[in-house]
Design goal:
Layout lengths: L2 H18 L4 E5 L5 E4 L1 H7 L17 H17 L3 E8 L5 E12 L5 E10 L1 H23 L3 E5 L5 E4 L1 H7 L19 H14 L1 E9 L5 E10 L9 E7 L1 H23 L2 E7 L4 E3 L2 H6 L10 H7 L5 H12 L7 E8 L6 E12 L5 E10 L1 H85 L4 H29 L6 E4 L1 H15 L4 E7 L6 E4 H18 L4 E12 L14 E9 L7 H4 L19 H11 L3 E7 L3 E9 L27 E5 L3 H13 L3 E5 L2 H9 L6 E5 L7 H11 L5 E5 L4 H10 L4 E5 L4 H15 L10
Parallel strand pairs: 17-19, 23-24, 23-25, 25-26, 26-27
Antiparallel strand pairs: 1-2, 1-5, 3-4, 4-5, 6-7, 6-10, 8-9, 9-10, 11-12, 11-15, 13-14, 14-15, 16-18, 19-20, 20-22, 21-22
Helix pairs in contact: 11-12, 11-13, 11-14, 14-16, 18-19
Amino acid sequence: MPAAEQARAMAVEEFRLLAENLPVMCWLADPTGYIFWYNKRWYEYTGTTPADMEGWGWRSVHDPAILGEVLERWRTSLATGESFEMVFPLRNASGEYRPFLTRIEPICDAEGRITHWCGANIDIGAQFDAEAALRRANVRLRAMLDALPMMASLQAPDGEAVFINRRSLDYLGVEATKDLAGRTHVVHPDDREVFLAARRSAQAEGEATAEVRLRRRDGVWRWHSLRWVAFEAEAPAASILATGVDIHDLREAADRLAKSEEQLRLAVEAAEVGLWDVDPINDTLYWPPRVKAMFGISPEKPVSMADFYAGLHPEDRENTSAAYAAAADPSKRTLYDVEYRTVGKEDGIIRWVAAKGRGIFDDNGACIRVIGTAIDITARKRAEEKLAQEKQRADIAAEQLRRLNERLEARVQEEVAARQTAQARLAHAQRMEALGQLAGGIAHDFNNILQAAQGAAALIERAPQDAERVRSLAHTIRETAARGAAITRRLLMFSRRANLQTEPIDAAGLLNELRDILSHTLGSGVSVTVKAEPSLPLLMADRGQLETTLVNLATNARDAMAGAGELTLAVALDVFQRREDENNPADLRVGSYVRFSVSDTGCGMPPEILARASEPFFTTKGAGQGTGLGLAMARGFAAQSGGGLHIESEVARGTVVNLWFPVAEEGAPRATAPAEANAEAIVSGQARSRILMVDDDAVVLNSLAQAMEAEGYTIVKATSGAEALMHLEEGQEVGLVITDLSMPGMDGLKFIKEVQRRRAGLPAILLTGFATAAVEEALGAVTRGLFSVLHKPIDARLLAQRVEVLLEATRGTMTARSFR
């Protein structure tokens, strides 16, 4: 065989060996298109034999629907000698058609003549399936992107949008994807460079993110977080997925949170609070420098839980470790709240730490974190220790002080008692001073009374037979005796020792009574005038103290006028609507007050004297001329009564002293002197009874007995209580007892008590010329039943009237009561 043919045969054989083992179907045809050889892959796929493929048998494995198109293309290539490529389905051994990519190439000799046709069929079914799946996936992807609650788009490598989901279109206010092609107008001008740089980065590196502001359809710029992710794609037109999330509210919240965290950091630093964080799973511990300092560890040194346990004071280690374990225990989850001491790892200093914290647990109940705070409270603890020591010392001092106070209180009580006694004596002395001022006028009045009584008695002795004249003179004596009795009552009231006993008082009536006394007391050179507003309400005060105060003020006025001038006693009603009223110089509370004004035409006082006028013991009268307590006592009395005092004075123009007293409540009974009974009111024909009369003064006893016998009573006389009791023990029948108060041996009180013990219910009358407050209180304690107190001198007919009232009460015609 020639060498050329031999080489050609070897080449053909090599081709066949290569073609038989190719993973694609191959075949060879002669220049006319007749296929004379198929490789093994063809037969395996089609399930045919060489006999089946003889001639034009290949047409049996083609899809009849496109066989005509395949034959036409094949004939064209045979006629023109051009290669062609076509995709068409071929039937496999199972009868299933799968797509194949077929390429047919002519093989030519050295002269360019076609010697063979070579064809290859490549199974592209998997590619077709992939493309179909890709198309389906693309549809699903777009549907999914449309369903996303965020903006999303598919972009080409150059950044052009291939698909934009509905959320993006609605948010940005555009109708279709093409409306955003190549446009960045929806990006804030200040953020466009960031936007483009991030998109370029995604194209180059496959992924990028950026935060930019996008314009909402209403024109509002809002922050968004954009993310680009590149992916492999069959169609390079869409190889980047871009998403955008509106983070405007989150960013604002983050800004607020950052500010809050910064404020918290500053607050924590200012409060010197240290934060700590324990990861029990990884056994890690975070301590900032502040907490490390609490354990005496340098800021740059690493720490672990071993440093925590080792740094605890031995006495506090057990309790602190147990508290931490309970906080990290899923079954307990208690609050970690402890105070413990630390021993510095590097400096050995003992410090106090207050720590609080809580465990954080996952869904399975495992503790994943324990976080909390720590505060260095060493200074506080040292202060508490110092305070405890000081408190102990203070307790000792307090006990000593308590004992001292007890001794001082005892001494103060003694001093207060002595002071109260002195004040009582001083008040009584002031009354006596006022009484002394009244003495002259009273002596004058009493001398006149005695003169009248003495003269009338002498005339009676000279002409006892003249009945008419004797009756007239007796009437004169009785009237002068009544005047004397009124004077003695006033003297007793002035000199009485007692606490303030407020009562409703008729101010105008009081001044009118004082005018007569003061007219004689102050001397003929002083003119006394009384001015009173009509229909004044009653005031509340102690009558005796008020009279004393007014007399003292009148005496001071006389001294200021050097015994000659005009004294005006005025009384009026003041109503204060507010405390700051300019007409309220005494700073009285809101309300109604009766104001007494004592005015004189004396020398007056300069401002420096006026400022001190009411100070205790301050006087302008000179040594030995006054106590300096008159105005001070007046001010104190007015204040104690609920009122006040104010002085107005000007040199050479006189002085006005104003006293205010609160108005009595509406309906309070008017305080007046007891009305004298009408002596003619005794009804004739009333039953007379026997009366036991006791008095140690025989003259008084006889005169009063005769007067009562003249009234029709039978009198059994006794000069002592013992004698009177003997009469009762002897069986004397009496309907009433009349006794004097002051008697030697057994006084009137004891006598009445003994009478009531022997004869319960027997009425009694007590006569006294001087009944103190103490005596009146004692009477209420020792007497019961029908009882009456009358003051000497007493008119016989008034006494008879009181006797008859008591006797009528014993007969049941009146309700039993005491007459005081």
